[in-house]
Design goal:
There is one protein chain. By secondary structure, this protein is an all-alpha fold. The longest helix is centred in the middle third of the chain and has 25 residues. The protein has one domain.
């Protein structure tokens, strides 16, 4: 999903592409924050919490 949104954002960079990418990534950020809060609440080790996160891979 993130790759698709990134491609649309790059293709339509003067239109709604960047806004769409922001909205989608904001949704993933909310999920990540909920996973972190839930993991901390049940005392999961950081390594296990990290496995629950959605991360965007950046090609350099």
């Amino acid at each position: 999903m993130l790759d698709s949104v990134r491609a649309v954002s790059n293709q339509y960079h003067l239109e709604s592409g960047p806004l769409l990418r922001y909205i989608v990534t904001l949704g993933y950020e909310v999920q990540n924050m909920q996973a972190i809060a839930g993991g901390v609440a049940v005392s999961l080790p950081p390594e296990e919490i990290t496995q629950l996160l959605v991360l965007e891979e950046m090609n350099e």
